Amino acid sequence: MRVVIFVNGEFHEPQRVRDVLQPEDYIIAVNGGTRHALSIGVLPQAIIGDLDSFTPKEQARIHPDKTMILRFPARKDKTDLELALRHALDKNATTILLLAALGGRLDQSMGNVFLLTLPELHGIDVKILEGRHTAFLIRDHAEITGQPGDTVSILPIGGDAVGVANHGLEWPLHDATLPLGSTRGISNVMLEGRASISVQTGMLLCVVTHL
To answer: Where in the numbering of this chain does the Thiamin pyrophosphokinase thiamin-binding domain appear (predicted)?
Structure first.
């Protein structure tokens, strides 16, 4: 199952989002992310969070028989997005797309990115879509599709990344080590429509910027 999660960040290029959505997607709105979904005519199957950003106007557009509302206390140990990700796992999601996950508070945006490293998400295809940017975690190997000229950046996350290699990019890496904090992997470029990146030990955050 593919799950699409509307988060409460900045919502860029709604037409791109419309083009990505599929009729069979299971839609989750995270708190104020409900307004993003409703703004493009999408009714979530589930709304999750403490609902402090869920306005009465938005509530009036929700039909309880079509949308499940999972309300959590404001004082809790997990962010609303983490709760939504766990709900997606309960639905046996194999692919998860995060929309409007960035922008707004810096700590929230960084926390949303770090959620990609949750051990429970290992084996699940999770991507953050932000305008022309797509971000995802590489734990072993990833195939990238795009077009020549697209920018591909990789950053070690959680520790050093060892045994890093790529193919189809302008600046090749072969069995390289990227220490935590290194910017060596920033701003590589796709040579053709496909590329690949692998890491033997550690994790890489990959960000693809499409032309």
So the answer is: 131-205
